[in-house]
Design brief:
This protein is an alpha+beta fold. 20% of the residues lie in helices and 27% in strands. The termini are far apart. It binds zinc ion (ZN).
Amino acid sequence: MEEKHIMVKCCRCRRVRLQDRWADEAEEPAGSPLYSHSYCPACSEQVHAELRSCSVVAAC
Ligand SMILES: [Zn+2]
């Protein structure tokens, strides 16, 4: 069975995770078949802060 490569993309700032870092969307390799939406570390912190203050309901 062919192994599918899953790109992890931040649904907040749209950066994509490459090997060991979060890269700008422009650096994203072409033709990535699958996405898993998540938050990069920076956005994750912001989102959690917002959730703590109950000002935003995050729908990803
Ligand atoms: Zn982000």
